[in-house]
Amino acid sequence: MHWLTQLIDFVLHIDRHLADFLRTYGTWTYAILFAVVFVETGLVVMPFLPGDSLLFAAGSFAAIGSLNITQLVVLLIAAAVIGDNVNYWIGRRLGRGASSHRWVRQDYLARTHAFFERHGSRTIVLARFVPIIRTFTPFVAGVGEMTYARFLAWDIAGGTLWVGLFTMAGYFFGNLPRVRENFSLVILGIIVISTAPLAWEVLQGLRRRRSADAAGAL
Hints:
mainly alpha; 10 helices; 0% strand
């Protein structure tokens, strides 16, 4: 559980850790930020990395001249889009392999494909703003064989919106005295707001399951 403690400390005090990276690695900090965003979006096994808070913190450091805001935004949009595309193609490759097995329900794969063809554009964009969900969405889109050109167009739009909003929010508001003095609370607030839709869906799912169980018991 030591890794979990370290992760929590990194997320809540991300401004201090990012300052340490800048002092230690200088311009290589850009590569570190690129890697974190790429891994969070590109590897299904790493959905817990602090994407939203990292973007906000990076924007706040760009505001004081420690990072170049234009280079930062362009680089992190590229990281988000490239990561999603890797994730999509992993899902697509695995989905095609799974479709050849008799134990995989073909109607499930067909429904997944139909869902992403009908609602995929909205899903791809909105999922960017929900931690964990944004990591799995491109993978599932690949499994469901969402048309790649459509996926790519909306993924670029979603990645640009996500990086732009959080980075520029940090750029304009991250160094306000009240925000700087309570940076950990602000980061915690970002996490709570970002995860609220996911928590709501989980609660709704549990409520529907209880209602179904109660109806079945009658």
